[in-house]
Amino acid sequence: MATTMVKENNAGPAQLLGPESASERTLYPYVTGTSVVALKYKDGILMAADMAASYGSTLRYKSVERMKSIGKHSLLGASGEISDFQEILRYLDELILYDNMWDDGNSLGPKEVHSYLTRVMYNRRNKFNPLWNSLVLGGVKNGQKYLGMVSMIGVNFEDNHVATGFGNHLARPILRDEWHENLSFEDGVKLLEKCMRVLLYRDRSAINKLQIAKITEEGVTISQPYALKTFWGFSAFQNPTVGAEGSW
Amino acid sequence: MGLKAPHSMGTTIIGVTYNGGVVLGADSRTSTGMYIANRASDKITQLTDNVYICRSGSAANSQIVSDHVRYFLHQHTTQLGQPATVKVAANLVRLISYNNKNMLETGLIVGGWDKYEGGKIYAIPLGGTIIEQPFAIGGSGSSYLYGFFDQAWKEKMTKDEAEQLVGKAVSLAMARDGASGGVVRTVIINSDGVIRNFYPGDGLPLWHEELESHNSLLDILNASGPEPMNI
Fold it and tell me: Which family does it belong to (chain A) (predicted)?
């Protein structure tokens, strides 16, 4: 059958090289997305991600949607290799399709999707051929809010607020300080924007074009792309060496 | 972290949509190390009557991927009973690129015209990501064109404007990228069909520090009359 040629090729000439087959492991990502930040708020989950896909240090693609809705109840955000994210979306498409085909009134909730993703990521990690992504899975089903994360090595957990990549270092401290139960939509958005602004200042692979997604019992909405205002008006920025002549 | 910098790929390839179709462009240099193995290669390859692919990176890898996709598209067209869409062609390319990412080193741009979506361009870089874009650039020469396109690109160009933009861009990249050179080839695809164009190096505009070409110094000396040479 023609399709056998395009299936995943784990064998091939590299097998002749001995037990350490080069073709059996992904070594490094090529086209990557940066941080995703998400938090629980009063009515559900809010998630933010910029629209950049970098190629090494080049900001190559600047209109990439890194958050997608999954079924009726979940939202998936991804950082890391975009081709692997696109493949994960295909797996999830199939998962949701089969779920719908049962036609039994049930639908997979965020907990189930998170569990599925964890298994996929962990099993790939065990084969030394990971899907090079950090995934954020959020959703609401039957009034229960859910927010979880899976890393490329299969580490998974749930929390009230999560972030991937640089967001772990820059956004989570802000969230730890300022997040509280029952944030309003406006406060949630402002808090996410505060995190995204810091990432814009300090993450080289971030761009000023982002989307914020909201998921509630009613469903998923992903905002149009927009840009944040940034502040550069510190007097210390004007003339950084004025207080210390000769310094750099 | 082991984030390896992207491989430098010999070539400049471009795909641009315009109001009614697409224009694909490429240089013609194939190099093995410092030697130019082929100075007039054709990097724009046909997949179907209405879909073409621009190849960059490893010549062997890009050729074999194109061959496979051409084979599958031919079968697909027969079974479908009508021309394949650009989207299907691009996704077949993605399938092969993604599933063999450990072995392949080729960046590709798929462009064409179909009756459902009109002119479309899909970029498929290393790794097998697929991105639909109004225009795409690839290959080592493309590094020099990001700024150019940020400024020069506009929506709803005419066919001639689009072709001129592509020609200008490939020519600019060739001026600065050692791995790009030779001639500029363009392929225009729209509802009327496919037109191939060929712009030899000496027909392109001259950029900074580039000079008009002559057959010989003697022509220059004779043209300006019996004046002393300036050294």
Answer: Belongs to the peptidase T1B family.
In a domain, B40, yes or no: yes
> What is the distance between the alpha carbons of residues B204 and A106, in angstroms, rounded to a whole number?
64
B36 pLDDT higher than 90: no
Query: Each residue of B150-206: pLDDT tens digit?
Result: 999 999 999 999 999 999 999 999 999 988 988 999 999 999 999 999 998 777 888
Range(s) of the domain holding residue B56: 8-222
Catalytic annotation, residues of A? 26
Is B3 in Cβ contact with A29 (below 8 Å)? yes
B110 CB burial (10 A radius; 0-12, 13-18, 19+): buried
In the predicted model, what is the mean pLDDT of chain A? 90
The CATH number of the domain where B207 resides is what?
3.60.20.10
How many domains does the structure of chain B reveal?
1
Q: What is the pTM of this model?
A: 0.87
Minimal C-alpha gap between A3 and chain B (Å): 9
- Say how far apart CA B69 and CA B66 lie, in whole Å: 5
Tens digit of each residue's pLDDT (9 = 90 or more) over A20-75: 444 567 679 999 999 999 999 999 999 999 999 999 989 999 999 999 999 999 99
Residue pairs between chains A and B whose CB atoms are closer than 8 Å? 77
Dist CA B17 CA B185 (whole Å): 16
Residue B90 resides in a domain: yes
CA distance A165 to A149: 12
Give how far A175 is from chain B: nearest CA, Å: 26
Residue A55 has its nearest CB partner, among B71, B92, B125, at B125
